[in-house]
Write a structure and sequence with these properties.
The structure holds two protein chains of two kinds.
Chain A lengths: L16 H6 L15 E7 L5 E7 L1 H4 L5 E5 L7 E3 L11 E3 L5 E2 L5 E7 L2 H9 L2 E6 L6 H5 L14 E9 L2 H7 L2 E13 L7 E7 L4 E6 L4 H12 L6 E4 L15 H13 L3 E4 L2 H7 L2 E13 L5 E13 L10 H9 L8 E10 L13 H19 L3 H8 L6 E2 L5 E2 L4 H11 L1 H10 L5 E14 L3 H7 L8 E7 L5 E5 L8 H13 L6 E5 L16 H28 L6 E4 L2 E4 L2 E7 H9 L14 E6 L6 E14 L4 E12 L6 H20 L30 E5 L17 H4 L1 H13 L10 H7 L1 H5 L1
Parallel strand pairs in A: 1-14, 12-13, 16-17, 22-23, 29-30
Antiparallel strand pairs in A: 1-7, 2-6, 2-8, 3-7, 4-5, 9-17, 10-15, 11-12, 11-14, 15-16, 18-19, 20-28, 21-22, 21-27, 24-25, 25-26, 28-29
Chain B lengths: L6 E4 L3 H11 L3 E4 L5 H6 L7 E4 L8 E4 L2 E5 L11 H6 L1 H7 L5 H6 L2 H7 L5 H8 L3 E6 L2 E6 H4 E3 L2 E2 L6 E8 L5 E8 L9 E9 L4 E9 L6 E2 L1 H7 L9 H12 L9 H26 L1
Parallel strand pairs in B: 1-3, 2-3
Antiparallel strand pairs in B: 4-5, 5-10, 6-7, 6-10, 8-9, 11-12, 12-13, 13-14
Classes of the chains: A alpha+beta, B alpha+beta.
């Protein structure tokens, strides 16, 4: 699978992009400066819900510098539309600038431009917006209450959509159960917080009539298509470039109204326009995540077999449906993945997306799976406790062992190492489990061990998207590989790399197929002009599908090189091996020719190629994912120490056993896992976007919105098991998101163990630990 | 997150600074380390029309002046770590510095800036109140001194008049037999305190002769515990009353509750941290006696 000379795939190749990123030569969106450029500040609603009575911009006329201002009247008809094609879905759209109603604090109201970013911010303060307040939907309970007026006219309630998924005979499972265990679990609203906020620059060039849009996005082609459709332009005249992007984590895996707005403003004003989002704006008005509530009911046989699971899933998705994954993205994903790695034979989920006067919810690393795994793995611990089984033994009893496995919803799992991972983790934690047990003698200092076992569907193919009926219909990745006459290779990658290390990994993959050094492979990405159409970087598909596409395209070039080498060496192409920059006979390496000479032949000295061979060394391959995807699996474990009198929690240890199939670059895999775990620790302990009862955001800076910092994070231990999948060309499964999926569940289980009490929600900040440990103080 | 327009003035002398501050009144602010003022300006929560940069004025000595330690307004927090007098004579002060923000904040932030900002969770205002410090204030009208207890009027509000500026702080030395401790709890290392407790005790070989206790983070200003302090006088240095004192303080103080921590949790935290701080101060005292 790894080519004939697999020395690069699996090697610890240092990241090529790091030189640029670590020495300050990376170029981000704010580094783009064009002559004559205007700077945009977006005046945003300061009220959560209300009718716009008046937008008075007359004070701008008195300012002593030039300004431009546009409101919803100017952009009427332009909107973000993210509808799911189900009759149950209530239609909504978000105008680029509010038309007559604002629906969350941060809703764009006016676009204000000036020739300097400071002046633009001053000018935006001069826009006076008179808003008549409307009742605010500020909580999930209010959103679920059918007597609360809907936030969209014509809606019957505040539910974007409610649907069901089911499989197996749940009633039979209920009848056969010796134990029925029901719990409700809650995960807080948070956000993803890339280091670089959003930003867009747009410029229309009169000479070639091309609109160039630079955006800090994970999906340049989708941005191009959306702008083209909304502004009625041919896609051939739009070029979208994602320059260096300072983190995305899914937050930038949506098309935003601001991207269309800035493009429209550049066309309207005839000048380049730049919008750089600030941190406060990013926290209140980009994309929020999680905000789930799950009520689960498990039907368990006397011997500990989980026979069936019933789920009721609510997600507060905020004021608008987001593009392209829609309001139903999170609740649908939670419903789909809750059966998890267990042999549950009957399942029924009701899931709904609720509208509220809050920032719209979108994708963030893990997408619903951190919440689903939190609920699933908290419940598994509670069941084990109730029926008196060890939590490891209970899971091992229910774990899937035979592959391929068709799950209760009809999804087929490819081979993984579920039981093996659990057993390995059990061994790794033996000492901690003993210490935790001993600590139960103390009321003051408690140690707890918790773990979470999960699978992650990655790299899923088109059918999985078709089923969802969302604006994104597919998830393939394309790559174009081209060898130049000097033997150097350029890859036009449909993915966009915002930290993943694609410039290195894809070079490794191509290098193996072509027998060259990865340093001779230049990976271009994030530019619709240089990369074939793809849907962007998200959904843990860069390695399996992007790597697979590069591999397949590279093999086409390798075949051609071998044919030329065979011709020149008077041997069969099939006997040629490409390695170390040479094409050589497998059984006689002394007979060889340099690959760069073959490239020169293919592109220039065509008299040297076999008769009839077409000139050129370029190949393109678009790789769709397997129908049900390929399932990565992992077990995460946390060891916590809690100082009960002060509620101070210390994370003593965090251990990951993970299986992402073939490992393409171990350093990058470890980095991905650790980065994800750190974000998961944030979800578990700290990060909480808080609104008050009027829908006013309370955590609008890093003083209040708390991310995990180095002192809070232990060294994350990562252990690997490799079960290559037969479903992708390199045997790789996705792993970008997995690190973020397990920590909330593992840490909550550890806290539950430490305090000897149930844990039903996150974040487990000091106040939460205080409330959870009341029984230890009173005793 | 860009500040509103302001004019920048580089003061060349204290007199120059005071003249400028007098001229600008409410619209002028001294700029020292900028660790609180500049973020507030970027958020447009503060909009001074004029910034008077006082960084070149000296005001950065730490010196014994008879029975007080004088610390200039421009002394950066990092300096305290290396100061032998503070370590020996004001032990709770030194412990508090460890809880101030992060290295960058400690290298830039100043004493005058911290107390003028009057963040209710900040360590140095609490230390001033704990040690009954005198705040030295100057304006074009002259100098005056304000007792720390009278300096902090409300959250982010002091009794400084427009045109006035802090030039230094005087900490009266406690007697030689003094011990102290400062404990804090925050969600993350370096965060705003959920609650912080400072304790300073004077003692003989076996008993507490007088005590000061202060709490930051629980109320709008640093809060002392006079009843608890009085109750500790004459008690054994083995600190058997520490828990009772902690409980008493937590019952008296009536802390605020907000989204960062409930009032109930803060009360519990105050009880525990007070207990531990008294025990710690007494333990250090026993080691030294």
């Amino acid at each position: 699978m790894n080519g004939e000379n697999p020395r690069q795939i699996g090697a610890r190749v240092q990241r090529f992009e790091d030189t640029r990123l670590l020495t300050g030569s990376a170029r981000y969106i704010d580094d783009i400066r064009l002559p004559n450029m205007l700077h945009l500040t977006i005046a945003r609603s300061q009220m959560a819900h209300g009718k716009i009575v008046e937008i008075d911009t007359s004070m701008l006329e008195d300012s002593d510098f030039p300004t431009w201002v546009f409101t919803g009247e100017d952009t009427r008809g332009l909107a973000l539309r993210a509808h799911q094609d189900y009759p149950e879905m209530q239609y909504s759209e978000q105008p680029l600038l509010a038309l007559d109603t604002v629906r969350f604090v941060g809703d764009p109201v006016a676009a204000v431009l000036a020739e300097d970013p400071y002046l633009a911010e001053d000018a935006a303060e001069l826009v006076f917006v008179d808003i008549d307040p409307l009742p605010v939907v500020a909580t999930m309970d209010q959103a679920r209450d059918s007597t609360v007026p809907p936030i969209f006219e014509g809606w019957k309630n505040n539910t974007f959509i409610e649907r069901q998924m089911k499989g197996g005979d749940l009633e039979a499972a209920r009848q056969a159960a010796a134990h029925v265990i029901k719990r409700t679990y809650r995960n807080q609203r948070q956000t993803g917080v890339p280091m670089e906020c959003r930003g867009v620059v747009a410029h229309f060039n009169d000479a070639d009539r091309v609109l160039t849009v630079w955006s800090s996005t994970q999906m340049p082609h989708l941005v191009r298509t959306y702008i083209a459709e909304e502004l009625d332009l041919p896609e051939s005249r739009i070029r979208v470039i994602a320059p260096d992007v300072g983190g995305g984590f899914g937050i930038k895996g949506q098309v935003f109204g601001e991207e269309v707005l800035v493009a429209w403003l550049a066309l309207k004003t005839g000048r380049p326009v730049k919008w750089i989002e600030d941190r406060r704006e990013h926290l209140i008005a980009s994309i929020h995540a999680r905000d789930h509530e799950h009520t689960l009911e498990a039907y368990v046989a006397a011997d500990g077999t989980v026979l069936g699971l019933k789920a009721d899933i609510s997600v507060d998705v905020g004021a608008y449906s987001t593009y392209p994954f829609t309001a139903a993205g999170d609740p649908g994903m939670a419903a789909k993945v809750l059966p998890g790695p267990y042999t549950i034979g009957a399942y029924e989920a009701t899931f709904r997306a609720l509208a509220s006067n809050k920032c719209p919810l979108g994708t963030y690393r893990g997408v619903a799976r951190p919440s689903a795994v939190f609920s699933q793995e908290r419940l598994m611990d509670e069941i084990a406790r109730e029926i008196g089984m060890d939590p490891f033994e209970f899971r091992l009893k229910n774990i899937i062992r035979d592959f391929p496995y068709k799950n209760v919803l009809g999804f087929t799992y490819d081979p993984g190492s579920y039981a093996e991972s659990l057993e390995k983790m059990q061994a790794l934690l033996a000492d901690d489990i003993a210490a935790a047990s001993a600590s139960k003698q103390s009321k003051d200092k408690r140690i707890g061990v918790g773990f979470a076992c999960f699978i992650e569907q990655t790299a899923h193919g088109t059918p999985d998207f078709t089923r969802r009926r969302v604006p994104i219909e597919t998830g393939y990745v394309a790559a174009r590989v081209e060898m130049n006459p000097d033997g150097e290779v350029v890859i036009g990658l449909g993915l966009q790399s915002h930290g993943q290390g694609h410039e290195t990994v894809m070079a490794q993959v191509a290098a193996d197929a072509l027998g060259i050094d990865p340093a001779n492979v230049f990976v271009r990405h994030g530019d619709t002009l240089t990369s074939p159409y793809s849907v962007g970087t998200w959904g843990s598909r860069g390695g399996p599908l992007g790597g697979g596409a590069v591999h397949m395209a590279s093999l086409q070039i390798a075949d051609k090189l071998k044919a030329i080498a065979g011709h020149l060496l008077q041997a069969e192409a099939g006997d040629i091996i490409l390695a170390d920059g040479k094409a050589a006979l497998a059984n006689d390496p002394s007979r060889s020719i340099e690959i760069r000479k073959l490239a020169r032949a293919a592109l220039r000295n065509l008299d040297q190629v076999p008769e009839g061979m077409t000139p050129g060394l370029v190949a393109e391959f678009s790789l769709d994912g397997p129908k049900d995807g390929t399932y990565a699996n992992a077990v995460h474990a946390a060891v916590v120490e809690i100082d009960v009198p002060t509620s101070k929690l210390t994370l003593k240890r965090f251990v990951v056993v993970e299986d992402c199939g073939t490992i393409l670059n171990p350093m990058i895999v470890d980095g991905q896992v650790r980065g994800g775990v750190v974000q998961g620790i944030g979800s578990a302990l700290l990060e909480h976007f808080v609104y008050d009862s009027e829908g006013q955001p309370l955590t609008t800076s890093f003083a209040d919105y708390l991310m995990p910092l180095a002192p809070e994070i232990p060294d994350v231990e990562v252990h690997h098991i490799e079960t290559p999948t037969p479903l992708t060309p390199l045997g790789a499964k996705g792993l970008g998101e997995g690190g973020a999926i397990g920590p909330a569940a593992a840490i909550a289980n550890a806290v539950s163990d430490a305090l000897g009490t149930e844990v039903a929600s996150t974040p487990l900040n000091a106040s939460a630990i205080w409330d959870l440990s009341a029984h230890l103080r009173s005793a | 997150m860009r500040p509103a327009a302001f004019e920048y003035h580089k003061a060349t002398s204290l007199e120059h600074a005071l003249t400028l501050l007098q001229e600008f009144g409410e619209d002028g602010r001294p700029l020292a380390g900028g660790q609180s003022l500049v973020p507030m300006m970027n958020l447009r929560l503060a909009r001074p029309g004029h910034l008077v940069d006082i960084n070149g004025l000296g005001l950065d000595s730490i010196e014994e002046r008879g029975d007080v330690l004088h610390i200039g307004a421009l002394v950066r927090h990092q300096r305290y770590f290396d100061d032998p007098i503070i370590a020996r004579r004001l032990p709770a002060f030194l412990e508090a510095v460890h809880w101030i923000g992060h290295p960058t904040i400690r290298r830039h932030g100043t004493l005058g800036g911290s107390i003028s900002h009057a963040d209710p969770t900040a360590e140095l205002p609490a230390i001033c109140v704990l040690y009954d410090a005198q705040i030295l204030v100057a304006s074009t009208a002259g100098e005056r001194r304000i007792a720390a207890a009278d300096f902090f009027a409300n959250a982010y509000v002091t009794t400084l008049e427009p045109g006035e500026m802090v030039t230094g702080v005087e900490f009266p030395f406690p007697p030689e037999n003094n011990s102290g401790a400062f404990l804090e709890q925050a969600e993350r290392r370096g965060d705003f305190a959920l609650a912080a407790i400072g304790v300073s005790i004077n003692h003989d070989t076996s008993t507490i002769t007088s005590a000061s206790i202060v709490c930051a983070g629980a109320r709008l200003v640093p809060t002392r515990a006079p009843e608890v302090e009085a109750a500790l006088v004459g008690r054994a240095l083995s600190a058997p009353e520490a828990r009772a004192a902690g409980t008493q303080f937590s019952e008296n103080i009536n802390p605020v509750g907000d989204h960062a921590a409930s009032a109930d949790y803060r009360r519990g935290l105050i009880a525990e941290l007070t207990t531990r701080a008294i025990e710690r101060a007494c333990e250090k005292a026993r080691e030294h006696s």
